[in-house]
Amino acid sequence: MSEVTIYTEHLEDGYPDWHPASDSFRGMIRLFTYREITGDSYRTLETYQELAEPFGLDHVPDEAVLSRAWRTDSTTGSAST
C-alpha cells in the first residue's frame, strides 16, 4: 500500500487551512483503503501501529478517531471529519 499511487487531487481534507489536523490526509486515505481491502475493524487497525510509518502517519489513530473521521454523510455521500 505504501508504494501505490493514490490520486487524491479531487479529494478534499475537509479541514479549513487554519485547522491543525494532527493526522496526514493522504496517510488516512491509505489507511482507509487498507481497511476496505482487508475488512479489518477500526478496533483492529488501532492495534497495527506498524502500519503508521509506511502510510505516512505518526501513529495509527484510535478507534474513536478513525470512526469519526470516516463517518459518511448520507446526504452528500462524502466523508466528513
Automatic annotation (TrEMBL):
Highest taxon listed in the record's lineage: Archaea
Name of the molecule in the record: Uncharacterized protein
Protein's organism: Haloarcula salina
